[in-house]
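**Fold in tokens:**
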Amino acid sequence: MIGIAIFIFINASKDVSTYANFKDAISNGNRVKIVGKLNKSVPTEYDAQNHPNVFKFHMIDDKGMEKEVVLLKPKPQDFERSEQIVVTGEMKGEQFVADEILMKCPSKYKEEEINIRKG
């Protein structure tokens, strides 16, 4: 029982990544989490037929630096509607290669509140 608990703890501790920005990720070279926003002026790239687990987009971090992000997962549903994105991964050359993504999407209640105020 103790051995199983130690095994679970060790595996869980491997995914401890710190929050950073693209500049930190470049100099750090380690696995990090980056918070930012989608640059909607640059088109996203997703070929579900040939490369279903590769989704590319441009993200601007909280310091204003922009990088191309290569997400090694399918394109998330409603991705373009996201207000904030958190990607976990590391810099590889000029791209940030991520294997995890979290998105903050607008609340339907927030949209209703805006419509009520306008009306």
Remarks:
- The mean pLDDT is 84.
